[in-house]
Each structure stands twice: as C-alpha cells, then as structure tokens.
Design goal:
The chain is mostly helical. Among the domains are: 1-110, no CATH class; 211-291, no CATH class. The chain has 10 helices and 3 strands; from the N terminus they run H-E-H-H-E-E-H-H-H-H-H-H-H. The chain has helices spanning 3-11, 42-48, 52-61, 93-108, 111-120, 131-135, 140-239, 250-261, 264-275, 279-291, and strands at residues 16-22, 66-75, 82-92. Strands 1-2-3 form a 3-stranded antiparallel β-sheet. Strand 2 (66-75) and strand 3 form a beta hairpin. The longest helix has 100 residues, at 140-239. The chain is rod-shaped, with a radius of gyration of 51 Å. The two termini are 92 Å apart.
Length: 292
C-alpha cells in the first residue's frame, strides 16, 4: 500500500493521528499549536496542506528522507492527551522521488527505442505459479498451509489490537470506579461523623435533662424542710447559752460556721444532702463540681 493511501486509511479512523520523523536526522514535523504539536490529524493535514499528497510533497521539500510515520490513537483531552501506537511505517521519500523521475524519463523513450530494446535484451523470466498450476497438483497442501498460516497471523494481529483497545477501556473504567469509590467512602465517613455528633449531642442533652430533673427534685424536697430547719435553729438559739461546749474536728467546725452564716434555704439544702446522702446523689454532685 502506498504511503498516501496508508495515511488516508489510518487517519479516517476516529481519534487517530500521525507523527512524522526523519530516522536518519531526527527531524520531526511540527505544527504551530499549544498542545499536541507533533500530532497531525486528517483535519490538521487538510487545513495546513490542503491534501495528503501536498502533505507528502511538503515533507520531500523540507528534506525528509528515510521517514517514519507513527500512527497512534489518542485518549483524553488535547491538554492531557495520551497516545497508543497502532502502526508504524517507514518510507524513504527520496527513493520515491527518484522513482518518479525515472518513470518520467522512461515515458520519453520512443516506441522505436522500446522495440530495439525488446529485440536486443534477452532476459529469462521466472516461472510463476498460477491457479492452473495449483489445480494441476503442484504442492497443494504446502500452498494451502501457507495461505492458512498467513490468514491466522493476520487474524491474531487484528485480535491483539482489539484486546489492547479493550484493555485500555477497562483500565479507564477501573480508574473511574476507583474515583467514585473514594468519593463514596468520603461521603460515608462524613455521614458517620455526623451521626456520632448527633448521638453525643443527644446524650449531653439527656444528661442535662436528668441533672435538671434531679436538681428540681432536691429543691422540691428541700422546700418542705425549710420550715422544720428554721424551727430547729430557733430552738438552738434559745438553748445555746446553756448548751455544753462541743469540740468538733476542724472541717466539721468550718462547716458549722458556714451554716451559722447561711440563710434558711441554704441550710435546708445541706440538711437534705446529709439526710439523703447515697452513691447516686454523690455522683450527681461530683459531676456538677467537675463542670465548674
């Protein structure tokens, strides 16, 4: 297949481009673009050169000789494009120029010269195997075996390219799924954190309600003791002068002095606490002290 036909065949496929490089000099064909400067699509060639033939002529004019045409498929956006090589073709453009010139000279030979050359030249021709020879029995099994092998190789190569494309698509799908999975994990963690905060808030609200209820219960009970404690203090005042002196421990004495300086309501709370002191009441008072 001629290089012009190969370029047209490859670039008619979706997302296919060609990169051009001189194998001997390292010269690369480049376009004036911000992204994908060395990649030429069919639209790029038609827009810049007008046609594939003019594209090849331009390469010859720029001195491209032993030239590599790298056909690739692109993935992603032009800013972050990735390439997958589909086919590589090397063509000596200088030889093609010489062959065109020699073909033009041969056309100038007159019919008389051509006749003379036919008479003077005596070149034996190589026998060619035709379909008639095959049908007549010239190694038919060998011929069929070679034909089948060549078809299998072509099928294997085609299937290999298809599998490479499927692998690319599968990797891309796996990458998208991993990104979605990470996003879902983040959402789940956020939901779990919100649930934990809600539970903690409910526990704190519940604890606050219990403390308020317990405090209210104490105040209601103390309210009934205030009149009795008031009469108790009056009796103590009346008999205080005749009461014998009592030696109390320092902490008890401090508490007693504070009681003497307190009003009836505060003293009633102290009496209630001392009269109903238990583990539950102690824990409630301890929690209140720790929060202060």
């Amino acid at each position: 297949m001629k290089i012009r036909e190969e370029i047209e065949h490859q670039l008619n496929k979706p997302s296919h481009i060609v990169k051009v490089e001189d194998v001997d000099t390292g010269q690369r064909l480049e376009k004036d673009a911000k992204n994908m400067r060395f990649a030429f699509s069919l639209d790029d060639i038609n827009a810049e050169f007008g046609s594939i033939k003019k594209f090849i002529d331009d390469l010859k004019d720029k001195g491209f000789g032993n030239t590599r045409f790298l056909f690739q498929r692109t993935y992603g956006t032009p800013e972050k494009a990735t390439y997958h090589t589909m086919k590589e073709v090397t063509k000596d453009l200088k030889k093609s120029v010489k062959s065109e010139k020699s073909r033009g000279k041969s056309e100038e030979i007159t019919q008389e010269d051509a006749t003379k050359r036919k008479v003077t030249q005596s070149v034996p021709t190589q026998p060619q195997i035709t379909s008639f020879d095959f049908l007549s029995g010239a190694n038919p099994m060998q011929y069929l075996g070679a034909l089948v092998d060549s078809q299998r190789v072509g099928d294997y190569q085609k299937r290999m390219l298809e599998l490479e494309e499927e692998l690319k698509d599968a990797k891309s799908k796996v990458r998208r799924l991993e990104e979605q999975n990470n996003s879902l994990k983040l959402k789940v963690e956020t939901v779990e954190e919100r649930a934990d905060l809600r539970v903690q808030r409910e526990l704190l609200d519940k604890e606050g309600v219990l403390e308020k209820a317990g405090t209210q219960k104490i105040l209601e009970s103390v309210g009934g003791l205030i009149p009795h404690f008031a009469s108790f203090l009056e009796n103590k005042k009346a008999t205080g002068l005749n009461a014998p002196a009592v030696n109390l421990p320092p902490l008890h004495q401090q508490a007693f002095d504070l009681l003497k300086q307190s009003d009836d309501e505060k003293a009633s709370v102290v009496v209630y606490i001392l009269s109903n002191y238990n583990d539950e009441l102690r824990q409630m008072i301890g929690n209140y002290i720790n929060k202060q």
